[in-house]
């Protein structure tokens, strides 16, 4: 298990990085998007949408990797360790009735014992759609796979599918309990019952319970998450930041324009990264013991969705440093175990939201994080 006494000597906070396991082909993606499709397909075909737009983004040290390769996963862990990251939070996909997708990379990590690098899991509990971005087309988004919640028996099956992971000595904990994050808490029916059931199963199987973290987002706030039985909150606040910068009314008008007259006739949905840095922190919330702020190096969703994507411009490692320092100041009075920053993300390349080296910045984002997180 994690030795916090040793960690306190070395790091100012616990950084847990979201990790996308998408970079390998699966039959479902072959059927939906064409044989051999991975996230790199979108990354490689990305286009500049305006002068100075940083696209396409090209990976440097690791190249266009395949997560079925042990060597790649080891190299990622070594980079993350160098950056001061405590562990990866692997996105986990459970669609109900035992249906999983993209599980191979994490299963390989679990079964092989490599890399010897801490981890936890986050349930990405949402349906997958093929988006229809043509506003003049009456066709709706095409449902690819639906997120289902069959009930008590499925909850039990879900728990036992992860029990070996929870018992692994690399698994990240808070208060002696394995961390389990839920992406969209408000979508889970009978949420309190789900949490209660898993906690009972955890105790029956020799664990101290589960430390549930809910992600606060567009439709749910921190107080509501805690009221529903969660132990903690991963606070993003991105939508609130966008509304603060541009105005809720303006954003609503632009959203309706893009939807009904088409994105080609409306302004791009872009923000200057400096404005994000200056507005993301909420000291009052982020200093609460069980509310955990997020930091993000950049964001550019255009490789997946073209002109309909959310785009941050002018991100630099030094501006990212400013975001890190602000977040650290909001958590530095907490007990070390709760002094957590969620890093969004380690490798979301098609969202322009990654730490891994690219041809423009190399390892500078990694260097900045290491410089600020590690005790001098």
Describe this structure in words.
This protein has an eight-stranded parallel beta barrel, surrounded by four helices. Strands 5-6 form a two-stranded antiparallel sheet. It has a two-stranded parallel ribbon with strand order 11-13. With 376 residues, it is of the alpha/beta class. The protein is 38% helix and 18% strand. The chain has a single domain, classed as Glycosidases (TIM Barrel), CATH 3.20.20. It is globular and about 60 Å long. The model has no long low-confidence stretch (mean pLDDT 93).
Topology:
Blueprint (H helix, E strand, L loop, with lengths): L3 H7 L3 E6 L7 H7 L5 H7 L24 H14 L1 E10 L5 E2 L2 H9 L6 E5 L4 E3 L11 E4 L6 H16 L5 E2 L2 E6 L8 H14 L6 E6 L5 H6 L4 E4 L2 H9 L1 H14 L7 E4 H7 L3 H4 L4 E5 L6 H4 L4 E4 L3 H15 L8 E4 L3 E2 L4 E2 L9 H10 L3
Parallel strand pairs: 1-2, 1-14, 2-4, 4-8, 8-9, 9-10, 10-12, 11-13, 12-14
Antiparallel strand pairs: 2-3, 5-6, 7-8, 15-16
Helix pairs in contact: 4-15, 6-7, 9-10, 11-14, 14-15
Short description:
By secondary structure, the chain is α/β, with parallel strands linked by helices. It is 38% helix and 18% strand.
List keywords for this structure.
two-stranded antiparallel ribbon; 376 residues; globular; TIM Barrel
The CATH superfamily is identified as Glycosidases
Spans of at least 5 consecutive residues whose pLDDT stays below 50 are none
Total strand segments:
16
Helix content: 25-40%
Which sheet architecture does the biggest sheet show?
A: 8 strands, parallel, barrel
How many separate domains make up the residues? 1
The best one-word shape is: globular
Write down the overall mean pLDDT. Answer: 93
Structural class: alpha/beta
Assembly category: single chain
The number of helical runs is: 15
